[in-house]
């Protein structure tokens, strides 16, 4: 009976705790790249890296996705990136390919995240590869989806529409706020 108590009461819990500790250590310190044969070339998303990332300067006539177009200056300054991925919006604004380029006739659609909405003001300056352009705020609209964002401004004038998702309870809501700016000569 003492032998059974020793085995079930002391040795088994110690061996189980030791094994669980080793497994937990391996999981916490494991490098995903070493474990997965499908991981080749992938990178783990790191927002600190994205904030300090050096971007290639865009060609003004034919920009590529992810290239730097210039700066968006309102109350605060944000980098203006052509077709920036959503994770990059924490430190930049994204110029959409669905609109016109800065300075061209038509609407330049610029996406930001709602935490950067405080950077917007009654006036806006965009400087970069297409020169320096000044804008004044002419209105603000709320729309239901991103498709409606691209229908909010006249396309025969030089203007900019800065849009972001509205913040709702428990995360992001489905609506968008669009701030419309008209270029000042």
The chain-level structural class is alpha+beta
Please, how many helices? 4
Order of neighbouring strands in the sheet with most strands: 1-2-3-4-7-8-6-5
Q: What is the N-to-C order of secondary-structure elements (H for helix, E for strand)?
A: HHHEEEEEEHEE
Q: Please, could you describe this protein's structure?
A:
- With 185 residues, the chain is of the alpha+beta class.
- Helix content is 22%, strand content 36%.
- The protein has helices at 2-29, 32-35, 47-51, 146-149; strands at 68-73, 77-82, 92-95, 106-111, 123-128, 131-143, 158-168, 171-184.
- A hairpin with a 2-residue loop joins strand 7 (158-168) and strand 8 (171-184).
- The longest helix has 28 residues, at 2-29.
- Mean pLDDT is 82; it is low at 46-52.
Question: Can you give keywords for this protein?
Answer:
single chain, 185 residues, alpha+beta, eight-stranded mixed β-barrel, elongated
Question: What is the strand and helix layout of this fold?
Answer:
Layout: H1 2-29, H2 32-35, H3 47-51, E1 68-73, E2 77-82, E3 92-95, E4 106-111, E5 123-128, E6 131-143, H4 146-149, E7 158-168, E8 171-184
Parallel strand pairs: 2-3, 4-7
Antiparallel strand pairs: 1-2, 1-5, 3-4, 5-6, 6-8, 7-8
Put the structure in a nutshell.
The protein is 22% helix and 36% strand.
């Amino acid at each position: 009976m003492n032998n059974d108590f020793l085995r079930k009461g002391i040795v088994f819990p110690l061996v189980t705790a030791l094994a669980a500790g080793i497994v937990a250590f391996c999981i916490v310190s494991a490098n995903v790249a070493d474990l997965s044969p499908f991981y080749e070339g992938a990178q783990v998303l790191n927002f600190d890296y994205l904030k300090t990332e050096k971007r290639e300067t865009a060609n003004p006539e034919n920009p590529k996705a992810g290239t730097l177009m210039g700066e968006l200056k309102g109350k605060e300054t944000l980098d203006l990136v052509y077709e920036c991925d959503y994770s990059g919006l924490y430190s930049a604004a994204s110029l959409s390919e669905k609109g016109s380029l800065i300075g061209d006739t038509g609407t330049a659609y610029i996406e930001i995240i709602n935490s950067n909405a405080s950077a917007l003001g009654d006036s806006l300056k965009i400087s970069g590869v297409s020169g320096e352009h000044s804008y004044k705020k002419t209105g603000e609209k709320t729309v239901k989806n991103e498709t409606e964002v691209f229908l909010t401004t006249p396309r025969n004038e030089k203007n900019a529409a800065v849009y972001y998702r509205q913040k709702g309870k428990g995360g992001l809501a489905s609506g968008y706020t669009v701030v419309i700016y008209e270029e000042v000569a």
